[in-house]
Design brief:
The structure is a homodimer of 366-residue chains. With 366 residues, chain A is of the alpha/beta class. The first copy, chain A, folds into two domains: 114 residues, Aspartate Aminotransferase, domain 1 (Alpha-Beta Complex); 219 residues, Aspartate Aminotransferase, domain 2 (3-Layer(aba) Sandwich), CATH 3.40.640. In chain A, 42% of the residues lie in helices and 13% in strands. Chain A contains 13 helices and eleven strands. In chain A, the strands form three sheets. Chain A has a seven-stranded mixed sheet, with helices on both faces. In chain A, β3, α6 and β4 form a beta-alpha-beta unit. In chain A, α11 runs parallel beside α13. The longest helix of chain A is centred in the C-terminal third of the chain and has 24 residues. The first copy, chain A, is globular, with a radius of gyration of 21 Å. The model of chain A has no long low-confidence stretch (mean pLDDT 96). Chains A and B meet through α2, α3, α5, α9 and α10 of A and α2, α3, α5, α9 and α10 of B.
Chain lengths: 366, 366
């Protein structure tokens, strides 16, 4: 056997880089455990006790296959949003569904439009299916909807990706602006609207829930629900689009415990409201930290806050110094946001660790 | 918006049929719960208590992302088989990994070889990536390795799929025959060797664990480990092939609880030995039932037994009558095995329900 692995031409051309190195992997590499894990936008406020109970109960039934139709969970999600169950597709996180969306709509070689520095896993899928990213920079640290629509039209892209609230910026655009964007898109372009952080956003940022055949909205149990490690996300879309997902998705992809946990969490609205309030309090804390250290923070409608370090060099230096001191944060890699670092809202003690560590760093000249 | 959904040409051409309708879905459609769920080759003997404890414990940590490197589980699997961790790829069941394997090696339009009536989810992926199945019938109810190798050579297929022990037949071929097959394959063809039922097979059916760059072996926690609903499988392959999987796999695809449960189950070897013994006892019971009813059974190295009804019509009639009486079984859809129905080894009470029901049916002329 030679070195040639017989891979397809698309795979041969792919880089070996992966979108995110997990916190545990970083810990293994640096040889220490983080004191404050504030880099992956996980929820610091845990999971609903009702969901915990449901997961523990379901664990005794894992010998049986999970329901490939995700029937009960899909029905509950549909009721929650006031849409039909046939308009819901459940997947192993939004990551899974984004990959399927690329596969559904884009032929190899086609352009796909997103902001420069958009969610890395989406870009991973764009490359993974042999498509070409067409990007436009953030403007005023927000998705530049007009420029993105123009890019989609000019490139005849089958897909445009927008996250709102945005990851990695944390900022948001108004629902009315999104609706204007949708009206402006060519009929051959589908908008992938990633709303992973919707629960944390002002109501004015979330379009009303009328299913549009040219829009797929993505939601997740990873953020407000505190279930990042469970892997459950869903798409809200036209019924015909949902049937398309059914033609290619991994039907048994969302395990029994994940389905049961997500269902129970969806029903625990009190828990979610509490999480959202705690996140709001934490964001305000981070804004105060920024003010006190003369580091401006971007407005955030998510469970993280983006700190503006003024330059890429300084942002990288602060990030690396924080990590050396046991505080895990991440930063955007592309300009103009590469001048920033991004901090997940932690618990009170975690935020205190972050505040103390960052303050020491900045006071000592970082 | 017109009816056109802008799907790719591959997706447009796909059927809406899915490989397996889940037992719960069948129950919802027939409006009753099965008394004996013996159709999906799930384990009737549940899950390791150590694994159950590990899953319940891990449930409290789902707010954190799972480890995308599956580091601990991968290490344990590698030790278990005496290979390197870099030769293990963990996925959400063998189903997930089979899809990735097609995507890694096969361009749209290329032929992929398998037995006629081979595992339906594999064929789903072959179609899903726009490839063309090239099939050869089972011979003496076994994979016809010589014919499959000849078909792979003649069609210049990048992939040949063989399950051993076989699903849906339950039969097996000897390791020496598989090794001869591998020697015979063109250098441009990779063998996908699905060993989902390996734990139930005679040692002589399982090739020694020397990693071959032209072979990918697939194992699962769904069968002997009793974790079908947890979705964990793995590939054992050349390190360069594993790096290929890393370029396209869903890195966060196997959730925290699944990783923790599988790891604990792997360490509970006593449990697995007990399951294997109980399955052997159940297979012998089914063989006796067959003899008493003049229905021959195929030899099985799996956790199910294939009953030969003599004709497709009779097999379908028996299957449908069993289902009407609350006994869920499945049957192969393609000749020559379409004359058979396939029954998972159940617990003692489940096998008694099956025996009683089948006996009544056959005695009344089915």
């Amino acid at each position: 056997m030679t070195d040639k692995r017989n891979f397809t031409s698309i795979v041969e051309d792919l880089p070996t880089a992966i979108p995110f190195v997990g916190p545990e992997a970083i810990e293994r590499r640096v040889g220490r455990t983080f004191d404050a894990r504030l880099g992956a936008n996980e929820s610091a406020f845990g999971v609903s006790l009702k969901a915990l109970e449901a997961m523990r109960d379901e664990a005794s039934r894992v010998a049986w296959y999970n329901d490939p139709e995700n029937h009960d969970l899909r029905g509950a999600i549909a009721s929650h949003h006031g849409v039909g169950a046939a308009q819901i597709v459940v997947g192993a996180g939004i990551d899974d569904l984004l990959g399927l969306a690329v596969r559904l709509f884009a032929e190899p070689g086609q352009p796909i439009v997103a902001s420069q520095g958009a969610y890395a896993t989406f870009v991973y899928h764009v490359h993974g299916y042999g498509c070409e990213p067409v990007t436009h920079p953030y403007r005023d640290d927000r998705n530049d909807l007009e420029a993105l629509a123009a890019a989609a039209t000019a490139s005849d892209a089958p897909l445009l990706y927008v996250s709102n609230p945005d990851n990695p910026a944390g900022t948001w655009v108004e629902a009315s602006d999104l609706e204007a964007l949708i009206d402006r898109l060519p009929e051959t372009c589908t908008l992938l609207l990633d709303e992973a952080y919707a629960e944390f956003a002002p109501a004015s940022a979330i379009p009303t829930m009328s299913v549009n055949p040219r829009v797929i909205r993505f939601r997740t149990f990873s953020k407000a629900h505190g279930m990042a490690g469970l892997r459950v996300g869903y798409a809200i879309c036209d019924e015909q689009v949902a049937l398309g997902f059914d033609k290619i998705r991994l039907h048994f992809g969302v395990n029994r415990i994940a389905q049961a946990g997500a269902l129970a969490s969806l029903e625990d609205e009190t828990f979610i409201r509490t999480v959202v309030r705690r996140v709001e309090k934490g964001r305000a804390h981070y804004a105060r930290i920024g003010t006190s250290l003369d580091l401006s923070t971007l407005p955030s409608a998510t469970n993280f806050v983006t700190f503006d370090a003024g330059s890429r060099t300084r942002a990288e230096s602060i990030l690396s110094s924080l990590q050396d001191r046991g505080v895990f944060v991440r930063k955007p890699s592309e300009p103009p946001l590469d001048r920033c670092f991004r901090v997940t809202v932690g618990t009170d003690p975690e935020r205190d660790v972050f505040e103390k560590t960052l303050t020491e760093l900045v006071r000592s000249g970082a």
